[in-house]
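Usage

Read records sequentially. Each one opens with the input sequence:
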Amino acid sequence: MVALDIQPLTREAFAPFGDVIETDGAAHFTINSGFAERFHDLACVDVAAGGGRPLISIFRGQPRPVPLRLTLMERHPLGTQAFLPLQDHAWIVVVAAGADPRRPDALRAFRAHGRQGVNYARGTWHHPLIVLVPDHEFVVVDRDGEGDNLEEVPFPDASLIVLNGLNRTGYGPPVRERRTGREG
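and closes with the structure output:
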């Protein structure tokens, strides 16, 4: 079994996989006669391949069982895919470097806070959405159009890779089983 450590999501650490979408440290300027700030050009939306067009959706995620075992990785060869949380809840991002996302040494896990989104670069291997609270909603910007824009690769044995630092209540130290004294 491989236990994958979760690190904080930063622009620098995530750069090989795409963009971190957040206002902290982002370029901005005043608009609307001084009543708004525009945080400009936070991610590169790349969906035009093969005549694609941008698509905006809302995803509502549910927590996965803990210990969280990675089951598959996916990528979108024809366009980027951005996730922007609508609630201020932490969530988990898992990506893989290189051509084979099943190699444990290629995997990276990040903890995003609820004011951070990500934009997966075209062709970046990533795990499907991992949320820590029920009904966690995201605006998702991705590609619609002709062509196959989804590739999935299952892990041969989902019990081999688990995420360190997750427990039944979300992100934090593992929850120890409470013994009742009746176990035999």
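Summary fields computed downstream for this record:
- The CA atoms of residues 92 and 130 lie 5 Å apart.
- Confidence is low (pLDDT under 50) at residues 173-184.
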